[in-house]
Design goal:
By secondary structure, the chain is mostly beta strands. The protein contains six helices and 21 strands. Strands 1, 15, 16, 17, 18, 19, 20 and 21 form an eight-stranded antiparallel β-sheet that branches. Strand 18 and strand 19 form a beta hairpin. The radius of gyration is 20 Å and the shape is globular. It starts with a strand and ends with a strand. The relative contact order is 0.19.
Length: about 325
């Protein structure tokens, strides 16, 4: 019975977090510094569990063990085995995140026995003037970067991008970046928790300690070239699937509906994830139904032949491999 599966959010406190995950998305948080809601995770130590229906309480790993290709898709199993290949989050940055980057697959495998971390962001809410840091504002040399880092002038080399609802960004490995204060976003990424933090504004954690920096590890992982390849241009035609990102690690479409729609999945050899970024819907496959509201996520098993989306108004990010 592989019906549309909803998972219990895994809530993460962060020193830069706030309360928008509760105030805007309705997450069950009590802390005032909750920064992340992991919606669908196969990361060791943070494995998602089903929240709805007869499989309630079943872990994602157990689902993969018991249902394999019917859950993930044959091609996904061939590439990734029993590992769930992407991590789905909502992120609330009340304060600036650290300036960081992520290694590519090769470095991550060599150093951490992990996947790299390619990711994308969809802005759901932004305070007036809120910004991201994405890349450098000019091509720099490694020694120039190191000198600015040591002298405390790294910020002078970085590109700032003001953002609003619906803006979408693709963050490839090696790109220096940071989510700025006042941004609430949906994140889709490779399954990896490997981050190289290079500057943290000299902040201290709740115990009064400076957080660890990964200065040396970052040097060979960083792309020092200025590139304007981060902002995603996409159509938003109503009642159609609009391609946003198509990379080797995931594909994401934007779908806005003002009426019911059936989507056929028989030619897609992959699971499908729907992240609701606005409105609400009832999502039905050949095995059952589940409600979906803003800030919620559904996993549609690969064996599903179709989904019926019943709605008068919904905005979805549709993710597959």
């Amino acid at each position: 019975m592989l019906y549309p599966l909803k998972f219990t959010p895994i809530l993460k406190e962060r020193l830069w977090g706030g309360t928008k995950l509760k105030d805007v998305l309705g997450k069950p948080i009590t802390s005032k510094i909750t920064g992340e809601s992991w919606e669908l995770s196969g990361v060791d130590g943070a494995i998602s569990k089903v929240a709805n229906g007869s499989l309630k309480g079943t872990s994602l790993n157990e689902l993969i063990r018991d249902h394999g290709k019917n859950l993930l898709g044959s091609s996904v199993v061939e590439r990734f085995g029993s590992e769930f290949p992407i991590l789905i989050k909502f992120i609330d940055a009340k304060k600036d995140l650290s300036i960081q980057l992520h290694p590519n697959d090769g470095l991550a495998k060599e150093r951490h026995n992990s996947f790299g971390k390619t990711e994308m962001w969809y802005i759901m809410d932004a305070d007036p003037g809120a910004k991201l840091i994405v890349g450098f504002n000019k091509t720099v040399q490694k020694d120039e970067y190191v000198r600015n880092l040591e002298e405390g002038t790294l910020l002078d080399l970085l590109h700032y991008e003001e953002v609003g609802e619906g803006d979408t960004f693709f963050i490839n490995t090696g790109k220096i970046h940071a989510i700025g204060a006042g941004v609430l976003l949906a994140e889709i990424q490779q399954t990896s928790d490997v981050t190289y933090r290079v500057f943290d504004f000299n902040r201290k954690d709740k115990d009064g300690n400076l957080r660890e920096l990964h200065t040396e590890l970052a040097l060979d992982a960083m792309d020092y070239e200025k590139k304007d390849d981060f902002k995603v241009a996409y159509a938003n035609a109503l009642n159609q699937s609009n391609s946003m990102v198509d990379c080797p690690y995931f594909k994401t479409n934007f779908i806005q509906l003002d009426r019911n729609q059936k989507i056929f999945l028989t030619e897609r050899d992959s699971f499908t994830i729907y992240m609701c970024v606005g409105g609400r819907a009832l999502v039905t496959n050949d095995q059952g139904s589940a409600s979906l509201e803003k800030g919620e996520t559904l996993l549609i098993p690969a064996a599903s032949k179709f989904v019926d989306i019943g709605t008068e108004n919904v905005k979805l990010l549709e993710v597959s491999i």
